[in-house]
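Appendix B, Record 12. Input sequence as logged:
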Amino acid sequence: MAKMYPSKLPKTSNISYAERTLFEAMQKQLNYKYSVFHSYHWTEVTNTPREIDFIVFHPEKGFIVLEVKGGKIIVDNGEWFTENKNGTFHIDDPFRQVQNNMYFLLNFYKQRTNNHFPGMANYGVCFPDTKYVPTHSHPEMTRTNILFNHHLDDISAWIEDLYKNPFYGYKKFSMNDKAVKEFNNILKPSLQISLSLRSALRQQQKELIQINFFQNYLLDIFDDKNRVAFQGAAGTGKTWIALKKALRLTMQGKNCLFLCYNSMLKKRLDELAEQMVKKVEGEIGKLDIYTFHAFSNHIFTSYIESIISENDKQKDLFFELANEIYAEGDVKAVYGLIGILSNPYRDSADKSLLNKYREKGLDERILTLLESLLEHNEDGYFQFNVPMGLLTLLEDNSYMTDKYDALIIDEAQDFEKTWCDCLAYFLESKRKRIIYIFYDDNQNIFMKKKQLPIIDLISKYNVDPYLYHLRKNLRNTKQIHNYAIQKTDLGKTAHSIDIEGIEPEEIVVNSEEKAQKEVGKIVSKLINEHSISNGKIVVLSDKSISRSIFKENKEIGNFLLTDSGKGTTGKYIRLRSIGRFKGLESDIVILVIHPDGEKEVEKRNELLYVGYTRAKFLLYVVRIT
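Logged structural output:
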């Protein structure tokens, strides 16, 4: 039995029946010395996408390149067509294709090894669905290099005939051990990478078409329900459904507030919403997308501006106070002071300043808000001061509560109890307000307590009857999905949709220097050998960048890691912490795990679960011991 790469074809992949038939025939009939590579695909050398249906390799003889065409084959005045139940379709000349591929592979070998290929090389065109008839004619067509349906009964004999009459080389040519190893090294890694990315993407797109219909159906079912919660593990489509619901509401003329935790996710949601809104005709409602942090700052800023905008005395007093609070600079805008207050490294302001400006006549509403924001508390600014400030505004007036007809919360597992106390006001103040909540109890990496406050909120306000569990992992390949569960024991509520890929690769090193070198090797191999674009790769750290192995040196080989907005072109590769990349995804993830990271096992598993599941198709784990 031949060694097949991959060992089996994915069930859900869009691989033709003709290719499957040939794959199975060669697997069963060729002996153990043969290696058969299916769907060899890359852009290297010419930077032009190229695919070879099959490469048959024998270590003592050489290689044969095969091009497969299914259906009934028709040649008319030099034009090629295939006919099946769906109609007749024009196809490229298969002989020209396969010859070009053979020459390409010979040149590829020479370029990679600096030697001519020492074995034999030939090509064949396969029509597994077609019977041979005398009317078949083509200048390149011979009884040797073309396979028809009847050859499938003894495909090994047909392959042997191709070696007996090679297009390149002579029968006396022989492959030495070095050449065999070089040829296998060229093919096997490239095949795995390219097949994983291309085939997995194709399977995912096929599945997503069906999932898209189901998600729309799901939203239709709950369309008349005002309070709904969705629970799902990583990759189950929570964010996508949340955005769809938000856009549906705005198309109905409703004003919608969309809250999430991660600023990078917020940026991505803005981009997606803008693309989708462009396709809508007519007037729609307003969609505001914020992180909870940014939303709070926006509300405080807007509230103060509404008081001082038409009162010059109040404006002068406010900025006089602002510049006393922040003695290092010149505060010229309200949002400037609010941003300064949210800085965890700022110097504490003396609250006695507020009394001074109370006597000067600064509006009491502003002073009450600033008292909430300036009060010192061990829980922290966003955990204590911000919620206190928001509750002050919520209880005082309807400045913002009636502005929105709907509230969508994504990443709700990361929302603090004090934040949920603020959100409760949205649930109480306007009974007809639509509230949709999306969360994953496997990913509460920012919470200290296991019990999620958002679950208490859902229970308290009777959202439970409409709590829907999302079960299908739409993001990760089966191998990455299983790896994440095996390593963390989390995410078991989700089921893989069997997108086939390759196993995650784990590399263990004993120093930071070696870890950086390994990351550099992986990136260099992906880009230089496999022609993967920079934008498909992200390097993740289980620690903040300022505490990671990259804090001082971001060079990895010929590439430069960047934690800014760059990282898709040139020499730049994206570098992010797991926390900052939460809610996002990348085709390829290189995850660096430090030895002195999160010590508490449960929290560490939750963090790594998030890291593993950011990878759609390829996952590399560099673990420092």
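The longest strand covers residues 615-624.
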